[in-house]
Amino acid sequence: MATYLDHLAVERGMAQNTLVSYRRDLERYIQYLTAAGVSEPAEVSPAMVAQFLAGLRAGDDGRVPLAASSAARAVVAARGWHKFLAMEGVVALDASRDVHPPSPAKRLPKALPVHEITALIDSVIGDEPRQLRDRAILEFLYGTGARISEVIGLDIGDVDLDQQSAKLRGKGSKERYVPVGSYAKAALAAYVVRGRPALLAAGGRSNHAVFLNARGGRLTRQAAWTILRSAAERSGVVSRVSPHTMRHSFATHLLEGGADIRSVQELLGHASVTTTQVYTLVTIEALREVYATSHPRAR
């Protein structure tokens, strides 16, 4: 096991926290094999690996059952070890080859209703530079479905208010252009004309970022989170609100309004439509609830 962990650290460059988790999972796996009377890796059978997975999910040796995600991590660690042993010639066959980690339950993204989105945005009132900035951020997040990294990474040259469009840099440095709606355009224009120059002057230096902090530097991810939390507190929205909540709401509301999934995929910057399809589950759930409460023979 130690040789495999060294391989992960040196050859694969695995992070220390991940190595700690792998070590813990492998120690549990080896304890299971020892209890089963296995003393050599070559003695491990596919059935034993499968039984180990079943024990993780059901709970074994007084341990509580693991969630699918935690069990999957443990099985991935065990599979990696077996594959490594086979590659090194320690064993002839990889006993774990046909044992696959459990698929985690698909989490439906949490979207806020439109009236709560409106309350969040309308909680920011005033003509102070930071108030203009905060409202522009909220309008832009909901109006474009952008990731928070894309928003704080915006430069002045990326926004064309005349054409009502913005260039976003997504995952893998992939660029895409998104439309900027009238509400987001108005908020951005107010901030760029009346708010941003004052923040830029406070820093006393040049900065191409659209969204600036009080010292004239580029706004951080943490600061953007704080802006959202503060807006949630002021508006009385009790649901947990994050930048991703705004993105989820953007996608969900588009689909509920009749947008096709391919268009939503492009707007979100998803590489595959499969990633976007989770939002269709949200709208189906909403339809199911309406059906259950409205149709005389639904129950």
Quick description:
With 299 residues, the chain is mainly alpha-helical. The protein has helices spanning 2-10, 16-35, 46-58, 68-87, 114-122, 129-144, 148-152, 182-203, 221-235, 243-256, 261-268, 273-276, 278-294, and strands at residues 159-160, 165-169, 175-179.
Structural summary, described in words:
The mean pLDDT is 88. This protein has two domains: 2-87, DNA polymerase, domain 1, CATH 1.10.150; 114-292, hpI Integrase, Chain A, CATH 1.10.443.10. It has a three-stranded antiparallel sheet. A hairpin with a 4-residue loop joins β1 (159-160) and β2. It has helices spanning 2-10, 16-35, 46-58, 68-87, 114-122, 129-144, 148-152, 182-203, 221-235, 243-256, 261-268, 273-276, 278-294; strands at residues 159-160, 165-169, 175-179. With 299 residues, the protein is mainly alpha-helical. 58% of the residues lie in helices and 4% in strands. It is globular, with a radius of gyration of 25 Å. It has 13 helices and three strands; from the N terminus they run αααααααβββαααααα. The longest helix has 22 residues, at 182-203. This is Tyrosine recombinase XerD. The active site is at 147, 171, 244, 247, 270, 279 (o-(3'-phospho-dna)-tyrosine intermediate). It comes from Nakamurella antarctica.
